[in-house]
Amino acid sequence: MDFNVKKLATGAGLFFTRAVQFTEEKLGQAEKTELDAHFENLMSRADCTKHWTEKIFRQTEVLLQPNPIDHTGARIEEFFYEKLDMKAPSRVTNGELLGHYMEDAAKEFGPGTPYGSTLVKVGECERRLGAAEREFIQTSAISFLAPLRNFLEGDWRTISKERRLLENLRLDLDACKTRLKKAKAAEAKAACEGEVAPDFQETRPRNYVLSASASALWTEEVEKAEQELRVAQTEFDRQSEVTQLLLEGISSTHVNHLRCLHEFVEAQAAYYKQCHLHMQELQRELGRLPNAFTLNSTHSMAAPGSASDGIDSPVETDTLKIEEVQAPATGTRKAKVLYDYDAADSSELSLLADELITVYTVPGMDSDWLIGERGNQKGKVPVTYLELLS
Questions:
Q1: Are 358 and 370 in contact, with CB atoms under 8 Å apart?
Q2: Average pLDDT value for the chain
Q3: Phi, psi of 311 (to 5 degrees)
Q4: How far apart are CA 144 and CA 269, in angstroms?
Q5: Nearest to 328 by CA among 302, 346, 347
Q6: ∠ CA(270), CA(275), CA(280), 5° rounding?
Q7: DSSP-H helix ranges across the chain
Q8: CA neighbor of 143 nearest in space, from 46, 3, 266
Q9: How confident is the model at residue 384 (pLDDT cuts 50, 70, 90)?
């Protein structure tokens, strides 16, 4: 108990001394030991690294988990699983959830209907997109977020702790310098008073003895202050070296974060490429499904009575001979291509997004397809890839 009281008293005295030194520095009444320019640059660089690393880390978390409520819930869940030393379960992404809803809706509407069959295809694609998103989130969390978090919660905390200790030792050093300066001034004053020759009055010898005693006491105080200053200077120099080594390690941190950034870009590129492939496959599949939305448009383009006029048609039951198809005198329309399309065979026409082509239908043709012409090129085109213009 006695030891704790002494330790508490020592700590309180040290805190008071540092507070006085800090206050006098702010008021301009005490000198302050300045760090060299290189050390100051290292600290500035470290502060800048921490500031922007924290911003990048937080915004990347928002990118991977846009909903703030879900993000907070996920962080709380991860915290509890981490404390329990257990692996957090995989979270269902919004895309996967949407895909499940669409598939459930298709069962209710009937998977054999145009709407139901389309919901099934789109739902499957959304689930694949959601799975790709989950994989991207997991990869990014391991390869990019984890190193940033380790720096902020590990390396930076160590650097901050050592910098605080260095600042405290600097305050102790400057306080010792101030104490030594005052002791020397008092010693010089006492020495000057001791050099005055005493007279023979009763009080003079006594004053002379007191002055000599005070001079000796101040000399002892100066020696003590010089010893404390040497100890404080040694501790400050040692701590300065330790802190400088940690600050110089920021360069290695930049190299590590650069590598992690490249991995994040690779993961993001792979994710978007996979999503693009899934969407292209979905477009092809939708082009082969019956589409009640485009059925009326294609039927309205057919010439009235063309099926009962008895005119020979180049359309056969199994195979469409594109080279024999001729554009009708009436019923052609302009159409804008919505997406790129690669022809599956020689009877189809490849399309480029945003181009304009001429389209028309022929009797007996599948309602999901039209005949498209672009200059001298001609072939079947899927209706779902087109926007029919008036």
A1: no
A2: 79
A3: -80, 135
A4: 14
A5: 302
A6: 125
A7: 2-26, 37-64, 68-83, 94-109, 114-140, 146-150, 156-194, 203-248, 250-287, 292-301
A8: 266
A9: confident
